[in-house]
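#help-structures

NK: newbie question. if I give both the sequence and a SMILES, will the prediction place the ligand too? trying with adenosine-5'-diphosphate
OV: yes, paste both and it writes out the complex. here, I ran yours:
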Amino acid sequence: MEVGASMAMQSRAPGVGAGAGGRRSAFLGREKQARAGSLRVGAGTAGAAAVAVRARGTKPVAPLRCVRASRGMMGSGKSTVGKILAEVLGYSFFDSDKLVEQAVGMPSVAEIFKVHSEAFFRENESSVLRDLSSMRRLVVATGGGAVIRPINWNYMKKGLSVWLDVPLDALAKRIAQVGTASRPLLDQPSDDPYTAAFTKLSMLAEQRGDAYANADARVSLEEIAAKQGHGDVSKLTPTDIAIEALLKIGNFVAEHPKTYGQVGDLQADSQSRRIQAL
Ligand SMILES: Nc1ncnc2c1ncn2[C@@H]1O[C@H](COP(=O)(O)OP(=O)(O)O)[C@@H](O)[C@H]1O
Ligand SMILES: O=C(O)C1=C[C@@H](OP(=O)(O)O)[C@@H](O)[C@H](O)C1
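OV: that's the protein plus ligand as structure tokens.
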């Protein structure tokens, strides 16, 4: 597994080529913007949550080239938690679904599924992940289905991957609340959105088997809720989950000193100085 060169931030642009559909991937320009800071989450919810994470005393140690809050079912909170992690770590954040939309030139994943096909979306998703895999200091929230293509693992394993493990029941509740229009695999007419989402999520979980469990770090909402002594995952905030993710990332790094050792120390020093300066 590759790690970032800590403070020696990668400054070359990734080799972004044509997307799988023949269109040029659109995020080369965005990556430049990200380095200029415009994609960083500053004042929004993730910014506030990042302040809360710091206030609760977690010292982020991220000698990582790349963190991928990549695994986890639809609605598990990859984007929400990924933005907080990026803010705390001082990394750029990317949502791979959004990058596919840009690459293809369509407004939503749902539209891509409808006009083209899931296979077309998957091809483009792989292209986006390939392009991201050459970048440094970023957090990527991938689509929940990225785990099903072995080629994507080659790309995801260029960084450290985090699995947000959320019970299906909690996921179905969230999805029933926010609606399924943006998630075509769940979007079917139903009088009972919770049961429809739960049934489909269970089927997908069955199909995907252990794919998520290959992640470097697993963040289990049930474990966090148990630690908090209430056992109710619906009470957990994105901040709680981000703190646990940072702990798990720290553990993984500590367990792999050969890969992360010296780089980790350098990065920890630089981050401590940055956090103290806030
Ligand atoms: N810890 C949480 N508690 C309650 N709702 C959450 C939590 N994390 C995310 N959400 C909500 O669930 C929905 C899906 O979250 P999102 O981050 O988009 O998931 P993903 O990127 O994994 O599909 C969003 O409406 C988000 O606001
Ligand atoms: O699990 C999946 O197969 C998918 C998850 C979605 O992303 P989110 O996990 O961000 O919802 C999106 O990529 C697409 O609708 C397919």
